Amino acid sequence: MDRASPDSSLHAIVAASPILSTILDRWASIDLPDCWLSGSAIAQTAWNSAFGLPPEHGLADIDLVYFDDADLSEEGEAQQAARIRDLFCDVPLWIDAKNEARVHLWYEPKFGYSITPYQSNEHAISTFPTTAGAVAIRPDTAASISIFAPFGLDDLLNCTVRPNKVQITQAIYEAKVARWRKCWPRLTIIDWHQF
User: Which Pfam families match (predicted)?
Assistant: First the structure.
C-alpha cells in the first residue's frame, strides 16, 4: 500500500480543520499581496490530527503573512489586519495579518536585536523559529494548496519541534517550547544545544 505524500497528508489535515479550511475557502476575499496562511497554527493543527485532539486544541491565533513593500506604515498594516478580522469575525480565533516587508521596523524594540529587511515572504518564513512552524499554505486550485516549506514537512508531520537558529535566540525558542509542551506533551522536542 502506498503512503500518502507529505504534501497530500498536509492537504488532508488542513481540509479536515474547520478553521483553516474556512480561511482557505474565502481566500479570494483576503486580497493581500503575496499572502500566505503560515506558522504555528498549521503545525498545531497537524499535531492535533496526529494526537487525536480536536482541530482547534491549543491554537492561540492564525497568522496571515503578506508582503507589501509599497506600504511600510504601521497604520496600513493595522487597517489590513482589522479588515481581515472583520472578514473572519465568525472564526473563533484571533487572526493576525502581518506585512513581512515591515518586520525589521519593529523587531529590535520587541526582541532586543535588529534584523535586515526581508526581501520576500519566502525569506521571512525561512526565519520562523522552528522547522515545523516554517510552513505556509494558500489555495492553488479549487482542489489543492500551494505549500512553502523551506525545511520540508518531515518535522511537521512527525510532531518534531526543532529550532531554526537563523534568527531567533534560545530564549525565544524555549518560551515557545514551554507552551507547546503543555498543550502537546507527546511532541518530540529537540533541545536548543542538540541541533
Answer: NTP_transf_6
